[in-house]
Protein: Sushi domain-containing protein 1-like isoform X1
Amino acid sequence: MDNRNRAMIVVFLLCATAETAAEGRSLDVCASCHFDATCNDLPYGSGKMCNCKYGFIGNGRTFCVDKDECQLRGICGPYSTCHNTRGSYYCTCLAGYSPSNNKDTFIPNDGTYCQDVDECRITGQCGEGGQCRNLNGSFSCSCQLGYEIHDGVEPFNPHRDKASCKLVDCGQPASGEDTVLLSVTGTSYGSVAVFDCDEGFVWRSGDRSSVCGADGRWRRLSMVCEEISCEEPVFKAHANMLWDGTSHMGSVVLYQCEDGYHTRSRRNSSVCAESGLWEDVDLWCEEISCGPPLTLPHTNLLWDGSGAPGSVLLYECVDGFYQEAGNNMSTCLLSGQWGEVSVQCKAKCGPAPFLPKSEVVWHNMSVVIHRCVSGHHSWRGGNVSVCGSSGEWQTATLRCIEIKPPVSHLCVLKEKCLRWRAEKYEEDTEDYKVTYVGSRDFQRSFHDRRKQFVSSKADQLELCLNLLPVTNYSISITAVSSRFTASITTSTSLPVPPAPAVYYREFETPVPTLRLRRSANTLDPISLYQVFVLPVEGIVMFDCSSPASSNPKIKSSAEYITAQFDVRHVGTEMNFTVGDGLDYGGFFNAPLENGRNYYIMLRAVSQWKSALKSSCVLWAEVRGTSYVLRVSSLSAAALIGLVAFFMMCGYSSSWFFKRTCHS
Ligand SMILES: *[C@@H]1O[C@H](CO)[C@@H](O)[C@H](O)[C@H]1NC(C)=O
Ligand SMILES: *[C@@H]1O[C@H](CO)[C@@H](O)[C@H](O)[C@H]1NC(C)=O
Ligand SMILES: *[C@@H]1O[C@H](CO)[C@@H](O)[C@H](O)[C@H]1NC(C)=O
Ligand SMILES: *[C@@H]1O[C@H](CO)[C@@H](O)[C@H](O)[C@H]1NC(C)=O
Ligand SMILES: *[C@@H]1O[C@H](CO)[C@@H](O)[C@H](O)[C@H]1NC(C)=O
Ligand SMILES: *[C@@H]1O[C@H](CO)[C@@H](O)[C@H](O)[C@H]1NC(C)=O
Ligand SMILES: *[C@@H]1O[C@H](CO)[C@@H](O)[C@H](O)[C@H]1NC(C)=O
Structure:
């Protein structure tokens, strides 16, 4: 129920109430009013009257019927539709129009009317590429530039027609005569295709590009291309031309030298170039001639002097040479060069060279192999002689030398030293092992066995050994590299025996006890001590080397031996009392005479076979109590004598040597 209907119902209720209230007073006109009427006062209080309401027509009492406003033509204005309602009406607009009050419906009494709707305000109304045009109550579409109508005709209405706008497509541009497509930006309206002249053609006039038009077609290409063409090819002296007669770009002409002519040029063809010119060919056909022939060492050339192709050269070895290998013939080739020759001439060196103490094992004309004769050898050096290019033998370096033992000329030098010659190669170092064994007939238990090593580069060696005295040594030297051993014997001589340390004293008693100290020595088995008594009378002379075995009983005034000891029986210390009257080693220790002065000497003696060595020391001085002369003031002469003696002790007896060195 709309608002108007609701208002009418309210009016009706009010009237019903008014009628009820008036009933008691008089017959109420108003009560007889039609439902769709109102009760109005008449003018001047003349009563009341029923009138049909607005929108109704009737007498107000028995009938009020709806008035159809739409029957009044044009009530809603142009482009509208009128809609009647009970007691009223309203208007709507035709399609393509809308009420100017911006509502769906209107009643024209407020000035509202139907106005055209601009459908083109909504974008995309005509689809992609469509151009919208507004019409009274409608719109139409056409296609924009670059688009064309599809499935229909223009103008069209997309709500009504199937038609639509489609992008113009010119398709792939076609290249025209003598042109090639270089690039194209696309196939739609406005795309640009660029062309170039076909190969062998050159641009003359016109535009090189074409554009895709709105009609879907490429603009006609105005470009004009003209074919490239060269003139007649150039003539070359002494050359034949091979040419097919065409002169377009890329056409080739080939040049060939005539027979007997050749060229050093690598290129012998010319091509018609883009410039419309034949390429320049630097071609000279020259007469073929092989130049002067090669000279080869040690050869003579046999040649008729012609350098024409086919001419022949022959090389022969000169006198004194022979052809060892290779090809000795050469022909002049079409290339203008002599064919390869490789002849090798070798000198004839004559008979094999001679090397002292050698023999030839094998030989041919150029090689000789030598060998040392037996009993000779070569340390190093080549054993091959080769015939040199000069015609002389390059003789082998072999040097044949007699085979000798690695150790030779072994001899003894100065009793304790060895000398020998080494047999070895130049700077080589030889190692030697020297072993020596010493023995003594007088001392069976004695064995001196020792070893020593020597390394040397020397050709002659000397080696001194620490040999003990009075010993027979057997010495061997082994050259380690060859295990060769040479042997020799030597005997060492008897030396002066070592004197014991005596405690020198002066006594005033006729029975003095004397002391000595000594150290053991390897000469002990052949040594003895002798105690001498020298009575002091005038000048005393004492010869330490004299045998002095005189019997004291015979020579009472002269010196005598009073005691003798085998050294082996003397300890490291000994006390001896002179004049005790006892027998020592076969000598009588005679009592000393009172009142006489004596010197006591100690002599050490070593003796082996015919050799004898001795040394002496003054042991004591004995003063007789009755004697006035003091020994200390005795005489310088006595002491001089002693000194003289000691000098005499330096002599050595001769010994037999075996193979002593002779310089
Ligand atoms: C639309 O109607 C108006 C008024 O009636 C008129 O002036 C106008 O020319 C019409 N337009 C078209 C496109 O018919
Ligand atoms: C000339 O050149 C062509 C190709 O460049 C080659 O085939 C031909 O052998 C050449 N001719 C002569 C005679 O050198
Ligand atoms: C050339 O060499 C051949 C063997 O290769 C030989 O027989 C001929 O004698 C040689 N000619 C001369 C001239 O040396
Ligand atoms: C001689 O012999 C050597 C070595 O075998 C060899 O190289 C050479 O060619 C030979 N010489 C001759 C002329 O036979
Ligand atoms: C020649 O010397 C080589 C090496 O130096 C050796 O091998 C060869 O046996 C020697 N030939 C003769 C015959 O001595
Ligand atoms: C050394 O040898 C010789 C000969 O065999 C011999 O007479 C001598 O007594 C020996 N000498 C030693 C000190 O053994
Ligand atoms: C030698 O005599 C001294 C004293 O005069 C004594 O001390 C020593 O032991 C003695 N030596 C021997 C070997 O009798």
Remarks:
- The first helix runs from residue 3 to 22.
